[in-house]
Amino acid sequence: MVERSLILASASPRRRELLDRCGVPFTVVASAIDESVEGDEAPADYVLRVARAKAVAVHRRHAGSFVLGADTSVVAAGRILGKPADADQARDMLRQLSGRCHEVISAVVLLSPDGRKTERLSITQVEFGLVHEAWIDAYVATGDCMDKAGAYGIQNQAGLWIRRLTGSYTGVVGLPLFETAQLLREAGLVEF
Q1: How far apart are CA 76 and CA 88, in angstroms?
Q2: CATH number at residue 10
Q3: pLDDT tens across 71-119, in order?
Q4: Which of 25, 31, 20, 30 is nearest to 4 (CA)?
Q5: Which residues contact 45 (CB under 8 A, 6 or more apart)?
Q6: Closest CA to 38 of 46, 47, 28
Q7: What is the set of active-site residues?
Q8: 121 burial class (0-12, 13-18, 19+ CB within 10 angstroms)?
Q9: Burial of 191 (0-12, 13-18, 19+ CB in 10 A)
Q10: Residue 116: domain span
Q11: 192 within domain boundaries
C-alpha cells in the first residue's frame, strides 16, 4: 500500500461523506475554479474538464499528494443544468425534469504525486415522476436545491419523485463510488 496522503479537491459535504466510505484517510482542500461551460461544450467533456481543473488547482499547492477531483452535471434535453442561481431558476429546472428522463454525468479524476492522471466517467439515467407545482414550491423553500446541479438532491426529498434510475446512485449524489474505488485501487491507495 502506498503511504502518501490523499486530498479531496471539493468542499462538498456529500462527496466527503461518500469518499469516507472507501476507508482511505484523506483531507479536504476546496478548489476555486471557474465552472462556466465553454461554448458548445459537450456535457461529458465539460464534467471531465471541470473535475480535472479542480484536481490540478489543488495539486499545484500539494504536489506531494494524490488529489481527487470530481464534478457532476445534470443534463436535460442535451442542456447542462448547473446549480441554480436563485429560487426562480431552481423552480424552472425542477419543472424541466418533472415527468421526464435526464442524465447525470459524474467525472472523477485522480492526480498522483508525479502528476500522472487517471479518470473515470459515470453516466446515469434518471426518470422523475410528474412533480406537482406545490411540491416544487415547498422543496425550493427548503433551500436544499440551491447548491446542487439540476436543483435537486436525490438523497433528500427529491428522491421521493425518482421513478427509475439506471446507473450509479452515488454518481447522482456527486461521487460515483465504483469508479472512485477503481482509481484508488489502481493507485495502490486501497487494497479492496
Answers
A1: 17
A2: 3.90.950.10
A3: 999 999 999 999 999 999 999 999 999 999 999 999 999 999 999 999 9
A4: 25
A5: none
A6: 46
A7: 71
A8: middle
A9: exposed
A10: 6-186
A11: no
